[in-house]
Design goal:
The protein is mostly beta strands. It has one helix and 15 strands. The chain is globular and about 50 Å long. The two termini are 31 Å apart.
Length: 194
């Protein structure tokens, strides 16, 4: 329960450790099953990563079959499905088949959104799930000139196969990935730092 901690190296025979960038993201769905997404050194034009999985609490790690090779925050669900945000929050990837393949998820601003959205400045957070089916996904939509934004919370009842706008915040000047990453859903309450 966090009273004691140990340093446990992530070791896999297929990963050249000299290429690692020194940072990463980790997500466990229970005491044994987890993912770690390690940043790989590359030019500034790329955002490479290595997505590894453990089934023994982190003692051993193997590559996730459908590793999208992108660095960023991850979420591994208890059913083996998962989510990855990369490219500064501009891209959201999902696996709904336990990591065999990943696909890009693109959520559109609601039709009645009051701003002219620039799709290249849409920022995704990591979704949160109450169970394997019910979840929430925060998305920040920004105007072409970057002057206005709306934060929309999307909801799913089918494990992320489909998403519908649930609620939104407007006119509060949100503009950063860190704001989207810091949102939280607790029961029916949406918590947003501003």
């Amino acid at each position: 329960s966090g009273q004691t901690w140990v340093i446990s190296p992530v070791i896999t025979s297929d990963l050249a450790t000299e290429r690692l960038g020194g940072s990463g993201y980790i997500s466990f769905s229970d005491a044994l099953h987890g993912w770690v997404n390690l940043n790989i050194q590359s030019s500034s034009a790329f955002n490479l990563g290595a997505l590894l999985a453990t089934v023994d609490g982190g003692r051993t790690w193997t590559f996730v079959d459908g590793d999208p090779a992108m660095s960023g925050p991850v979420l591994r669900q208890s059913n083996g499905n998962g989510w990855l945000v990369h490219n500064g929050g501009e891209d959201l990837e999902a696996t709904l088949n336990q990591g065999k393949t990943f696909h890009q998820v693109q959520l559109q601003a609601p039709a009645d959104v009051a701003i002219q959205v620039d799709s290249s400045h849409t920022v995704y957070g990591i979704p949160s799930f109450l169970d394997t089916q019910s979840g929430a996904e925060p998305v920040l939509f920004t105007t072409v000139d970057g002057g206005k934004s709306e934060l929309v919370l999307f909801a799913t009842q089918d494990g992320g196969a489909t998403w519908k706008p649930d609620r939104r915040l407007t006119g509060i000047g949100l503009s950063s990935l860190s704001t989207v990453e810091s949102t939280s859903v607790a029961g029916s309450t949406w918590i947003v730092p501003i």
